[in-house]
Specification:
This protein is of the alpha+beta class. It contains 8 helices and 19 strands. 44% of the residues are buried.
């Protein structure tokens, strides 16, 4: 049996809302886990956290690997936010480091440290792709289980890839947005039929005046109906707002079904290689601190991951 440093973190919350859960294993210097062991731990935590991140450090070089209950994940936005926020907050030297680079399967990822100034860390979304899909308002309303009249006509339906292929759906009112309760299987089939990953709905009305939009994100493709706080989905939304001249500068977005206790995802506009890029971020809250007891036979019971890893905010 080996003891691993373990935390359960919730991303995009200071503790006053649900957040998006992730497991965090920080490996001590020289400590190693096999892929089978990492997979076994993640599988055991299915239903408790969406992904488990494994962080190792060699000097100033950080490495992160993510595993869902099914397989390794090339990149996980909310887990990166949560783990890097916790890492920086707990290290006096890192608190004064404006930018770190963490290495994940998807490549080197810059992490902007704004913990002291804004109580947040940010990561930069990939370059956007605006995808052509033959999607009609009537079909979207049916898939969401709502009336056509609840969908706003002021801005278009559009599929934007900001890390995940995201259908952006404008709603007329906050009440319409909060009332949505789509059938999971019907919505999953709709996403499959039109070849995108998640559905992002938004309203311009918010509960708190400091926030710019209320959003909800549905992700039945990944085995559950709703994602409580989403990095790449809201990054796609930021690119959508820029394209349609609706960007209001740095903004905070309310997300989730709770009327009074939404999660908060922050969006900024940065520049990489001369191109505007959306940056998403926020804080994280520690829910559990302890040690995970890894037994020698756990890895033997873990199936091997498929060759193609997932990239996700959630699974």
């Amino acid at each position: 049996m080996r003891l691993l440093n373990f935390k359960k973190l919730d991303a995009f919350t200071r503790g006053d809302s649900q957040g998006n859960p992730a497991g965090y294993v920080r490996l001590d210097e020289g400590q190693r886990l096999s892929e089978g062991e990492m997979q076994a731990l993640a599988r055991e935590l299915k239903g408790f956290v969406n992904e488990v991140g494994y962080l190792s450090r060699a000097g100033d070089r950080f490495h992160l690997r993510f595993f869902s209950s099914e397989c390794e994940v090339a990149f996980c936005g909310h887990a990166t936010i949560a783990i890097m926020y916790d890492l920086i907050s707990c290290d006096a030297d890192l608190l004064d480091t404006p930018e770190l680079t963490v290495h994940v399967k998807a490549g080197a990822m810059p992490v902007l440290n704004r913990v002291r100034a804004e109580d947040a860390v940010y990561i930069t979304a990939p370059r956007p792709e605006f995808l052509v899909r033959d999607i009609h308002v009537e079909d979207v309303a049916t898939a969401l289980g709502t009336a056509v009249a609840t969908l706003s006509q002021e801005l278009p339906l559009e599929v934007v890839d900001g890390g995940l292929r995201t259908l952006i759906v404008p709603m007329e009112t906050l009440a319409d947005c909060l009332a949505l309760n789509p059938n999971q299987e019907r919505l999953r089939q709709f996403t499959a039929d039109h070849d995108f990953d998640i559905v992002h709905v938004f309203a311009e009305e918010t509960i708190f005046a400091a926030n710019a939009y209320r959003t909800r994100v549905f992700a039945p493709k990944y085995g559950y109906l709703e994602d409580p706080a989403t990095g790449s989905g809201n990054a796609a939304f930021g690119y959508y707002l820029r394209r349609h001249d609706s960007w209001r500068g740095d903004i905070a977005v309310e997300q989730g079904p709770s009327r009074s206790r939404p999660n908060i995802v922050r969006l900024k506009l940065g520049e990489v290689d001369g191109m505007e890029r959306i940056q998403f971020g926020g804080p994280a809250t520690v829910r559990i601190i302890g040690q995970y007891c890894l037994h020698g036979d756990q890895a033997e019971n873990a199936n091997r991951c498929p060759e193609n890893m997932k990239t996700a905010d959630h699974p």
